[in-house]
Design goal:
The chain is of the alpha/beta class. Helices cover about 40% and strands about 15% of the residues. A 6-stranded parallel β-sheet has the order 1-11-8-7-5-6. The longest helix has 21 residues. It binds NADPH dihydro-nicotinamide-adenine-dinucleotide phosphate.
Length: about 280
């Protein structure tokens, strides 16, 4: 039976470490403030925004809230970002996604100063990750690296298969595993023989957004399985992209949903904010 990787516990550990570090940095006169922008009042986004603000408060970072109405224009949002880019008291800028349909997400992401892009979505930060230079790294994949390392799972030399190639999870995940010296295969909706490829994985990371898609036929005995997917059913019950009950008995370690990858994203966002104080 697989060891359950406890993302809640590891996330709490990281936040605790950051809280101690922030207190010490503050003694040296360093401060950090994260500007959180929400456009519209999508309930799921409101929960994420609230949790991010709570995490800031917990570790001792100031959070500044900007709430724009659903009908505000793209230019209004770009103007606000520009103002925050210029404000020396703001170290991080986060625009909660998704944006309303009349706004161009790419344009908005590019408007954020790469030095304040704590989500790690700006092309300059993505490029830095590709060539192994310093920059902000997308929080969910960065959190998965922490889950693996802090669970004592060796990455170097392992066969890693990433299922999904989105800009915020799959692609940065593959690059981070490569940085950790895994041998990485990236798969997607056009991949042939997905089952056979997944079955070769020592570490299987799944981010496809399809409920319980990965069954035991995709998993090698003893593999480590990381499930990024989040699905909520009509009774509010959460599940992932992996059929947990089937895969748990054959994996050596597995992340549950909820309580696996999910809690790590905010911890790594906080880490990105604190990194602006370390300089
Ligand atoms: P996207 O929808 O942006 O990307 C999904 C990827 O999966 C695409 O690359 C797609 O391929 C691939 N894919 C879809 N169907 C298949 C298939 N049948 N076989 C192989 N590959 C397939 O999703 P995200 O990466 O944004 O998110 C994935 C999941 O993770 C979602 O459930 C999301 O809710 C969750 N998530 C969780 C987070 C957390 O904090 N835990 C954070 C972010 C996301 P193609 O490119 O060819 O279309």
């Amino acid at each position: 039976m697989a060891e359950r990787i406890d993302g809640k516990k590891i996330s709490a550990e990281i936040k605790e470490e950051l809280k101690t570090e922030v207190a010490a940095l503050k003694e040296q006169g360093k401060e950090a403030a994260l500007a959180v922008i929400q456009v519209g009042a999508d309930p799921a986004s409101s929960v994420y925004v609230r949790n991010k603000k709570k995490a800031c408060e917990y570790i001792g970072i100031k959070s500044l809230s900007y709430e724009l109405s659903e009908t505000s224009t793209e230019q209004e949002l770009l103007d606000l970002i520009e103002q925050l880019n210029k404000d020396d008291a703001v170290n991080g800028i986060l625009v909660q996604l998704p944006l309303p349909e009349h706004m161009d997400e790419d344009k908005v992401i590019k408007a954020i100063s790469p030095q304040k892009d704590v989500d790690g979505f700006h092309p300059q930060n993505v490029g830095a990750l590709v060539i192994g230079q310093e920059g902000f790294v997308s929080c969910t994949p960065a959190g998965i690296i922490q889950l693996l390392k802090r669970s004592g799972i060796e990455i170097e030399g392992k066969n890693c298969v990433v299922v999904g190639r989105s800009n915020i999870v799959g692609k940065p995940m593959a690059l981070l595993m490569l940085r950790e010296n895994a041998t990485v295969t990236v798969t997607h909706s056009k991949t042939r023989n997905l089952k056979e490829i997944c079955k070769e994985a020592d570490i299987l990371i799944v981010a496809i957004g399809k409920k319980e898609f990965i069954t035991k036929e995709y998993v090698k005995e003893g593999a480590v399985v990381i499930d990024v997917g989040i699905h909520r059913d009509e009774n509010n019950k959460l599940s992932g992209d992996v059929k947990f009950d089937e895969v748990e008995p054959i994996a050596s370690a597995i992340t549950p949903v909820p309580g696996g990858v999910g809690p790590m994203t905010i911890a790594m966002l906080m880490n990105n904010c604190v990194s602006t104080m370390r300089k």
